[in-house]
Design a protein that fits this description.
Length: 197
């Protein structure tokens, strides 16, 4: 009896010559595409989050107003003199470190722990002022002068930054939360700096 011919003699077994060259190329493409897809899949959300954060930062900076001009570093004599706000409030800084005010705007604090307690400046008021020009503007990193008022005898205080141009000087601060965009701006009157004393 003749044995049937072995079917594998004409067709090689599956394990011989496997994988074919076409299959190998496909596997390499898949091996490269899977990690690439993973990187894109993980990186895309991070890029979206970073982009959204940057956009919010830019919009918040554009939407929160500041007075015209640049942050300024002023000398004590340049700060000395009379400043007025848009409602007619007046602040006079004397060369000897004292001040007198009448109904000025500002963001006043009495060192109370209650952040929701609205504090009003004494009107009229007086006290001492200090000048500091070691601070830096948050946006530009430029030196900026600050004026710190302390009313006597109450201890209520407020702080203003110098801004503007050499011809149009201003002292300013936010009133309450800066995101609300309420500004207090005190502009120099035509009197200029006091002569001192």
């Amino acid at each position: 009896m003749r044995r049937a011919e072995d079917p594998y003699r004409q067709t090689p077994p599956p394990w011989q010559g496997w994988p074919s060259a076409g299959t190998s190329r496909r596997r390499w493409r898949i091996a490269l595409l899977v990690p690439l897809a993973g990187v894109v899949g993980c990186g895309l959300p991070l890029l979206l989050v970073a982009g959204a954060f940057t956009l919010l930062l830019v919009v918040s900076r554009l939407s929160v107003p500041v007075p015209d001009g640049e942050p300024l570093a002023l000398s004590r004599s340049e700060l000395t003199g009379t400043w007025v706000d848009e409602r007619g409030g007046r602040l006079t800084l004397e060369q000897d470190g004292t001040f007198a005010s009448d109904d000025i705007c500002g963001d006043f604090d009495d060192n109370d722990d209650d952040p929701f307690d609205e504090v009003l400046a004494p009107a009229p008021g007086e006290g001492g002022w200090e000048h500091d020009d070691t601070g830096d503007d948050v946006d530009a990193g430029d030196p900026v002068s600050t004026v710190h008022l302390t009313f006597a005898p109450s201890g209520i205080w407020s702080r203003y930054e110098a801004r503007g141009t050499s011809k149009d000087l201003a002292l300013w601060t936010y009133i309450g939360d800066p995101d609300e965009g309420r500004l207090c701006v005190l502009e120099r009157t035509g009197d200029g700096a006091a002569d001192g004393g």
